[in-house]
Every structure is written in C-alpha cells, then in structure tokens.
Write a structure and sequence with these properties.
- The strands form three sheets. Strands 2, 3, 5, 8 and 9 form a five-stranded antiparallel β-sheet that branches. This protein has a three-stranded mixed β-sheet with strand order 4-1-10, with no helix packed on it. A two-stranded antiparallel sheet has the order 6-7.
- It is mainly beta.
- 12% of the residues lie in helices and 41% in strands.
Length: 145
C-alpha cells in the first residue's frame, strides 16, 4: 500500500472512531415536549453541555425550533458525543425568540427542563443534567404554564 493510500485509510478510520477507541461515536437524542396548549408561535428546545452555559442560548450546544401545535412536538439532536447534557425547552408563543418573563425572572410562557426538577429560583444545570449514552436516548419533557 503506498503512502497516500495508507494516509487516506488512516483518516477514514479516525473519522469512524476506530482509531480513537470509539470517541467519535455519535448518539442521537430524541426529545418530545408537551403538552403544548395551542399552535401559537414555536417550541424551542435548547441543549446544553456545560454548566456555565446553561440558560444562555448563545452558548448552547444546539438549538432546535419547531412550529407549535397542540399536543406533543418532537425534535432529534443527531450525532452527539456521549456525555452529560441538560435541556431547557419553551413554548415561544409570541415567536419573539426568547422565553418571556415577568419582572425578568418568572416565566410567562410554558417551559420544561430535563429531569423535571422543582424550581424555586433559577434552574441549575446540575438539577437538569442527564447522561447521554453512546447508544442514544429518548427524553420526554413536560411543559409548565
């Protein structure tokens, strides 16, 4: 095998995660959010992979937005490395792009957190964190209005 062919084969193996011991393996995370009360606006599902980024959408790992519809909406985050994540989802009824809050603190639109923790102040990454295995996972989040 010539040097170029060997180099290409090594690159392909690395990309497939074989040389790295599987660290390149990608997991899918399916998330269902509901019950959405009406078809106004959109439902945003925001995925975080760091405590310091939690609740800061610009620093999130990924964001998906889908049109709102009564009942349950679903999104899938694809090709994620196994690890620890947290999700905040909300029904952006006025399609402003942000979770509306009374006095800047109390949500006035429906919201959900992974693990459905009791919230008496700003939610934390730790309370919402979950492990995503390499095989992927399915989460169901319950909106609170």
């Amino acid at each position: 095998m010539n040097h170029l062919a060997l180099s290409l084969a090594a690159t392909a193996l690395f990309a497939a995660g074989i040389v790295t011991g599987g660290t390149a393996a990608a997991a899918d995370l399916a998330v269902s959010v509901g019950p959405v009360r009406d078809a106004a606006g959109q439902v945003k599902v925001v995925l975080y992979d760091r405590p310091d980024a939690f609740r800061k959408e610009a620093q999130s790992r990924a964001i998906q937005a889908v049109p709102a519809m009564p009942g349950t909406v679903e999104v899938v985050f694809r090709d994620l490395p196994a690890g620890t994540y947290a999700i905040m989802a909300y029904h952006d009824e006025d399609a402003s792009g942000d979770l509306n809050r009374f006095l800047g603190m109390i949500p006035t639109e429906g919201y959900a957190l992974s693990n459905d923790p009791e919230v008496t102040g700003p939610p934390s990454f730790e309370a919402s964190a979950f492990a995503l295995p390499a095989a992927g996972s399915i989460l169901k989040l319950s909106l609170r209005y």
